[in-house]
Amino acid sequence: MRFFRSILLAAIALFVCATTMHAQAPFVTDDTAVANYRQFHFEFTNEFDFLKESDYPSLHQNTANFKFSYGIWKNVEIGGDNQLLSITSAPNDTYPEFALGYGDFDFSVKWHICDEKGKRPSFGASLNIEAPTGDESKQLGTGIADYYLNFIGQKSLPKKNTLRVNGGIYFAGNPATGAVGDRISSGFVMTGDVSLIHDYTDKFSLGVELAGAGTFNQLLGKGQLQTEIGGMYQVNKKSSIVFGFIAGFYRDSPKYAPVIGLEHDF
Q1: What does residue 14 show for φ and ψ, rounded to 5 degrees?
Q2: CA-CA 20 to 30 A from 95: which of 34, 37, 152, 257?
């Protein structure tokens, strides 16, 4: 069974058959919005992962991610992000029992291709290039450069719901962050993400997500698949609080992880 072929086909099917949060946090699924022209947008999320037995000797990982984006042109933003990682491991001969440091630095360009119009969804795309700046010997970095292209679709649905679908490919590298993620040494890595968001009020949104990553030559159980329930509360016109809870399946996802963060427009 080709696990990720099924995931991607399911995402496409949802899109064909078919949040209103300003940005994608706390979800993996990206939205089509970009930073306003000549303005900065900041996101911070903190995720504490309880790891699976397959990650042993690694036990826990905390990922504090900082991301800035800037509207360089109308409908185009550039951005950069990095993570402050801390990884706790059982006594072993490979990794330190506690590692703390920055991970791999990521540079991105994102394009809002078109707005939603009638039955047509809005579309966007992003290109990410990640430099191997983290210490691989401590699991803080992957030791390789990542080149990732992601396509984004977004559609407003009745009753204040929003559907987002992403499909992407790592041409080189892999989506691992610290001890979590799919560490593929060769071959393309495919990603597929779907989220559904409901706006309960003008300030409060809540949604669910299914996100996965893997290669077609991987066996079932060796990929990355996780679900998340999360939301956003808008504190004021420029700031919002985001929160979520992740449950992971298969070898390369965390067992579960709470997420908390904030966003701010400058």
Answers
A1: -60, -40
A2: 257
- CB-count burial class (<10 Å; 0-12, 13-18, 19+) for 219: exposed
Pairwise CA distance, residues 254 & 208, whole Å: 17
Tens of pLDDT, residues 215-229: 766 544 457 899 999
Q: Which residues of the chain have pLDDT under 70?
A: 1-23, 184-186, 216-222
Distance (Å, rounded) from C-alpha 164 to C-alpha 29?
7
Amino acid 231 reads G
Query: Under a CB-based contact definition with an 8 Å cutoff, are residues 266 and 237 in contact?
Result: no
Dihedral, CA of residue 92, residue 94, residue 98 and residue 99, to nearest 10:
-170
What's at 95, amino acid-wise? Y
Residues 6+ apart with CB under 8 A from 249: 225, 226, 227
